[in-house]
Predict the structure.
Amino acid sequence: MDAAMSKRGPSAPPMEKPRGGRARSVAELLPDAGRAAFRRFGFVQSAVVSRWGEIVGPRYAGVSTPESIRFPHGERTGGTLNLVVRGAHATMMQHIAPEVIERVNRFFGYAAVAKVQIRQGDVPVPAPRAAPPSLRPVPVELGASLRTIADPELKAVLEALAAGVAATRGAPVMGVDE
Protein backbone atom coordinates (compact mmCIF):
# COMPACT_ATOMS: atom_id res chain seq x y z
CA MET A 1 0.00 0.00 0.00
CA ASP A 2 1.14 3.50 -0.78
CA ALA A 3 2.46 5.61 2.14
CA ALA A 4 0.25 8.57 1.17
CA MET A 5 -2.80 6.31 0.97
CA SER A 6 -2.22 4.92 4.46
CA LYS A 7 -2.12 8.42 6.00
CA ARG A 8 -5.35 9.59 4.34
CA GLY A 9 -7.34 6.44 4.83
CA PRO A 10 -9.18 4.35 2.25
CA SER A 11 -12.21 6.66 1.85
CA ALA A 12 -10.33 9.94 1.32
CA PRO A 13 -10.51 11.43 -2.21
CA PRO A 14 -7.29 11.40 -4.23
CA MET A 15 -5.22 14.58 -3.99
CA GLU A 16 -5.52 16.95 -6.92
CA LYS A 17 -2.56 18.69 -8.41
CA PRO A 18 -2.60 22.46 -7.89
CA ARG A 19 -3.83 24.33 -10.93
CA GLY A 20 -1.24 26.31 -12.82
CA GLY A 21 -1.42 29.77 -14.25
CA ARG A 22 -2.48 33.05 -12.83
CA ALA A 23 -5.87 34.58 -12.29
CA ARG A 24 -6.94 36.64 -15.29
CA SER A 25 -9.21 39.66 -15.23
CA VAL A 26 -12.42 39.80 -17.24
CA ALA A 27 -10.90 42.56 -19.39
CA GLU A 28 -8.21 40.11 -20.51
CA LEU A 29 -10.79 37.46 -21.41
CA LEU A 30 -13.31 39.62 -23.29
CA PRO A 31 -11.14 40.50 -26.30
CA ASP A 32 -10.83 36.77 -26.99
CA ALA A 33 -14.61 36.31 -26.86
CA GLY A 34 -15.21 39.34 -29.07
CA ARG A 35 -12.51 38.29 -31.50
CA ALA A 36 -14.14 34.86 -31.91
CA ALA A 37 -17.57 36.43 -32.50
CA PHE A 38 -16.32 38.94 -35.07
CA ARG A 39 -14.08 36.36 -36.79
CA ARG A 40 -17.25 34.44 -37.62
CA PHE A 41 -18.54 37.45 -39.53
CA GLY A 42 -15.14 38.51 -40.87
CA PHE A 43 -14.80 41.83 -39.05
CA VAL A 44 -11.65 43.04 -37.42
CA GLN A 45 -13.48 45.83 -35.64
CA SER A 46 -17.15 46.58 -35.40
CA ALA A 47 -16.26 50.26 -35.74
CA VAL A 48 -15.89 49.79 -39.51
CA VAL A 49 -19.62 49.11 -39.71
CA SER A 50 -20.73 51.73 -37.22
CA ARG A 51 -18.46 54.46 -38.66
CA TRP A 52 -18.78 53.58 -42.36
CA GLY A 53 -20.25 57.02 -43.12
CA GLU A 54 -17.21 58.73 -41.59
CA ILE A 55 -14.78 56.46 -43.43
CA VAL A 56 -16.15 56.82 -46.98
CA GLY A 57 -18.34 59.89 -46.65
CA PRO A 58 -22.12 60.26 -46.77
CA ARG A 59 -22.35 59.98 -50.57
CA TYR A 60 -20.84 56.50 -50.73
CA ALA A 61 -22.21 55.33 -47.37
CA GLY A 62 -25.73 55.91 -48.69
CA VAL A 63 -25.27 53.34 -51.46
CA SER A 64 -22.90 50.82 -49.82
CA THR A 65 -22.32 48.97 -46.59
CA PRO A 66 -19.40 46.78 -45.46
CA GLU A 67 -20.26 43.11 -45.22
CA SER A 68 -16.95 41.63 -44.05
CA ILE A 69 -13.19 41.83 -44.23
CA ARG A 70 -11.45 38.54 -45.05
CA PHE A 71 -7.75 38.15 -44.38
CA PRO A 72 -5.32 35.48 -45.56
CA HIS A 73 -4.96 32.73 -42.94
CA GLY A 74 -2.90 33.98 -40.00
CA GLU A 75 -2.52 37.51 -41.41
CA ARG A 76 -3.99 40.90 -40.49
CA THR A 77 -2.90 42.70 -43.65
CA GLY A 78 -3.78 42.36 -47.31
CA GLY A 79 -7.43 41.60 -46.66
CA THR A 80 -10.45 41.73 -48.96
CA LEU A 81 -13.22 44.15 -48.05
CA ASN A 82 -16.60 42.76 -49.11
CA LEU A 83 -19.16 45.47 -49.84
CA VAL A 84 -22.87 45.31 -50.56
CA VAL A 85 -23.74 48.03 -53.07
CA ARG A 86 -27.16 49.19 -54.19
CA GLY A 87 -28.03 48.35 -57.82
CA ALA A 88 -26.43 50.49 -60.50
CA HIS A 89 -23.99 52.11 -58.07
CA ALA A 90 -21.73 49.04 -58.27
CA THR A 91 -19.96 50.37 -61.37
CA MET A 92 -19.24 53.67 -59.64
CA MET A 93 -17.91 51.83 -56.57
CA GLN A 94 -15.58 49.77 -58.79
CA HIS A 95 -14.07 53.00 -60.11
CA ILE A 96 -13.49 54.45 -56.66
CA ALA A 97 -12.30 51.18 -55.07
CA PRO A 98 -8.69 52.45 -54.71
CA GLU A 99 -9.97 55.48 -52.80
CA VAL A 100 -12.13 53.25 -50.56
CA ILE A 101 -9.10 51.05 -49.84
CA GLU A 102 -7.04 54.13 -48.96
CA ARG A 103 -9.72 55.48 -46.61
CA VAL A 104 -10.25 52.14 -44.84
CA ASN A 105 -6.50 51.69 -44.40
CA ARG A 106 -6.22 55.24 -43.06
CA PHE A 107 -8.98 54.37 -40.56
CA PHE A 108 -7.10 51.26 -39.39
CA GLY A 109 -3.72 52.95 -39.45
CA TYR A 110 -2.06 50.21 -41.49
CA ALA A 111 -2.54 48.38 -44.83
CA ALA A 112 -5.39 46.15 -43.65
CA VAL A 113 -7.25 46.04 -46.99
CA ALA A 114 -5.67 45.27 -50.37
CA LYS A 115 -8.76 44.79 -52.54
CA VAL A 116 -12.50 45.35 -52.61
CA GLN A 117 -15.07 42.78 -53.65
CA ILE A 118 -18.49 44.16 -54.58
CA ARG A 119 -21.85 42.39 -54.38
CA GLN A 120 -25.08 44.02 -55.50
CA GLY A 121 -27.83 44.02 -52.93
CA ASP A 122 -30.22 46.06 -50.84
CA VAL A 123 -28.57 48.71 -48.69
CA PRO A 124 -30.59 50.31 -45.88
CA VAL A 125 -30.69 54.10 -45.97
CA PRO A 126 -28.70 55.48 -43.02
CA ALA A 127 -30.73 57.72 -40.74
CA PRO A 128 -29.25 61.22 -40.48
CA ARG A 129 -28.15 62.24 -37.01
CA ALA A 130 -29.37 65.64 -35.95
CA ALA A 131 -27.60 67.65 -33.30
CA PRO A 132 -29.65 68.20 -30.15
CA PRO A 133 -31.19 71.67 -30.06
CA SER A 134 -30.08 74.17 -27.48
CA LEU A 135 -32.68 74.40 -24.73
CA ARG A 136 -32.21 77.98 -23.57
CA PRO A 137 -30.38 80.96 -24.95
CA VAL A 138 -26.96 81.32 -23.41
CA PRO A 139 -26.29 84.54 -21.53
CA VAL A 140 -24.11 86.93 -23.48
CA GLU A 141 -21.36 86.93 -20.85
CA LEU A 142 -21.05 83.11 -20.98
CA GLY A 143 -21.67 82.44 -24.66
CA ALA A 144 -19.26 84.74 -26.43
CA SER A 145 -16.55 82.08 -26.67
CA LEU A 146 -19.04 79.39 -27.73
CA ARG A 147 -19.81 81.06 -31.06
CA THR A 148 -16.49 79.93 -32.56
CA ILE A 149 -17.12 76.19 -31.92
CA ALA A 150 -17.89 74.44 -35.20
CA ASP A 151 -19.11 71.05 -33.92
CA PRO A 152 -22.87 71.42 -33.29
CA GLU A 153 -23.08 68.61 -30.70
CA LEU A 154 -20.17 69.93 -28.66
CA LYS A 155 -21.57 73.45 -28.91
CA ALA A 156 -25.00 72.29 -27.65
CA VAL A 157 -23.46 70.44 -24.68
CA LEU A 158 -21.27 73.41 -23.74
CA GLU A 159 -24.24 75.78 -24.06
CA ALA A 160 -26.26 73.55 -21.70
CA LEU A 161 -23.35 73.53 -19.25
CA ALA A 162 -23.02 77.30 -19.45
CA ALA A 163 -26.76 77.73 -18.87
CA GLY A 164 -26.55 75.45 -15.83
CA VAL A 165 -23.67 77.47 -14.42
CA ALA A 166 -25.58 80.71 -15.04
CA ALA A 167 -28.66 79.34 -13.20
CA THR A 168 -26.77 78.59 -9.98
CA ARG A 169 -26.63 81.06 -7.09
CA GLY A 170 -23.30 81.03 -5.33
CA ALA A 171 -21.12 78.07 -4.39
CA PRO A 172 -22.79 74.75 -3.59
CA VAL A 173 -23.22 73.94 0.11
CA MET A 174 -22.43 70.36 1.12
CA GLY A 175 -24.08 68.49 4.01
CA VAL A 176 -26.83 71.00 4.79
CA ASP A 177 -30.43 69.77 4.88
CA GLU A 178 -33.02 72.22 3.67
